[in-house]
Amino acid sequence: MDDRSRLVQRASLIALGGNxxxxxxxxxxxxIASSMAVLGDGMDSSTDxxxxxxxxxxxxxxxxxxxxxxxxGHSRAETMAAAVIAFAVFFAGAQxxxxxxxxxxxxxxTQMPGVLALWVSGVSIAGKILLSWSQxxxxxxxxxxxxxxxxxxxxxxxxxxxxxxxGLGLGRLLGLPLxxxxxxxxxxxxxxxxxxVIFMEAxxxxxxxxxxxxxxxxxxxAIATVPEAGNPHRTRLRRMGAWIMIDLxxxxxxxxxxxxxxxxxxxxxxxxxxxxxxxxxxxxxIEPRGIAHEEERFGLSPGLAESETEGDPTGSPRA
Length: 319
Known about the structure:
Layout: H1 3-32, H2 36-62, H3 76-104, H4 116-142, H5 145-174, H6 178-206, H7 213-223, E1 230-240, E2 243-252, H8 258-275, E3 279-288, H9 302-309
Parallel strand pairs: 2-3
Antiparallel strand pairs: 1-2
């Protein structure tokens, strides 16, 4: 197991232990103190336990080398895990949404939650702050989309527990036990929103897309240091977990020998790897200068990458 895999495993074990403790505490207190909001918060933490277990499994798959069926390796296992995480979080939010709405409109007399619910919410805030920080710390060190999704989910949990703490406090002060049910409903909406965000980011990677146009700018800046490599175009970046795959075309003097053109391609590869981090592989296609294929309308050119970076997605990729 390499260093990156060990760090992902360590982060997942921390998340597993911390969330197991918090989930058990909140579910127990939610039942004892008759607080649907705290119980719902415990359900959310229970999904975090499943997420941590899933992260450990996905990490083992992602660390496996490439084989005949997966020549690019297994790094996408992390992205798949992030997508499954989104569904798990969404399911928990939907269950809480249905339960809270049913409780609000049931017409039953609502019992005031016990003061223990306030204390466990405070403990949850402190615990989630530490867990979120740890997941974010390891995500930055490893570049793991799975840990990034986990950190974002836990940051949302901080605000969830804070809202419950404030709401329960106001409910006791004002004598409005129904606030507990309303809070549970609002918590469910927050959980569902987080699930959608996590899924959309995982889906971007699974569809070989990217929102990081700055990486394109770095690639073109690296190519510019090789004057013999002209008109970089049809440039495509895609992520494989923490790694980046790069495909691009360049134009060279058509009178060069194959060996000389190949040497230019190697210099382009070295320039990119020296400027862009976490490059897994680069494929450079050589074309004779001045021959354009206008029907090829995929990939980015320097002009389009710059317009996207500046927030003006106009223009068209040049073949």
